[in-house]
Write a structure and sequence with these properties.
Layout lengths: L1 H4 L6 H13 L8 H7 L4 H4 L10 H11 L13 H20 L9 H12 L29 H10 L1 H20 L11
Length: about 190
């Protein structure tokens, strides 16, 4: 059944039907997923532990306490407390700090530039398969809802639930572009064979 397979494995028609319910689910673990993964943060409701297990080391915990104090770990809700909002702001700062620790990261939507940056940073060359610059583009995409197909309240809810991920993505793009300039990779570089 779909309930055990999850929404990511649903047929497009089932996905469209279930999306509004999934979006309003209080245990929606997709909200700010990238931010939480970079901060090793997990909501207690997700891991089923009142202790809020996070699976991080002592040094990371010290950094978290120094930045966040003892703010509650809560999933975003419509009536967020000031403490919950501060907690998410803190998680954004921790995620940004973690992002800056990566020597390299690429951007899915900019596969070619990601490859060029990797080559420039590490002195390696990617072999070029036939098909030119578009080879491999979109191979990771799954047919799902498009933002323009959503209602305005749905778009607003997605933006609110993923506020930190949106900020983190913008910061990643800024860092990515800075690294392209640093390594002399023009933003109009192509990956033709």
């Amino acid at each position: 059944p779909l309930a055990t397979r999850g929404i990511d494995h649903a047929a497009k028609s089932d996905y469209d039907l279930l999306f509004p319910h999934w979006l309003s689910c209080p245990k929606n673990v997709a909200a700010d997923r990238q931010t939480r993964s970079l901060t090793h943060d997990a909501w207690p409701v997700v891991v089923g532990s009142a202790s809020g297990y996070r699976g991080i080391g002592r040094g990371e915990r010290r950094l978290e306490r120094a930045v966040c104090g003892r703010l509650p770990v809560l999933a975003p809700t419509a009536n967020d407390s000031a403490a919950a909002r501060r907690r998410r702001d803190c998680l954004w700062l921790l995620a940004r700090h973690a992002l800056l620790q990566f020597d390299y990261f690429g951007i899915n939507e900019q596969r070619c530039l990601s490859e060029k940056l990797f080559e420039a940073q590490f002195g390696l060359r990617f072999g070029r398969a036939g098909g030119g610059a578009a080879a491999g583009e979109g191979a990771h995409r799954v047919a799902k809802l498009q933002m323009e197909e959503l209602t305005e309240p749905q778009r607003q809810r997605i933006a609110r639930l993923n506020r930190n991920d949106i900020l983190l993505y913008r910061e990643a793009l800024r860092i990515f572009r800075w690294r392209l300039r640093l390594y002399g990779v023009p933003e109009n570089a192509t990956c033709d064979a």
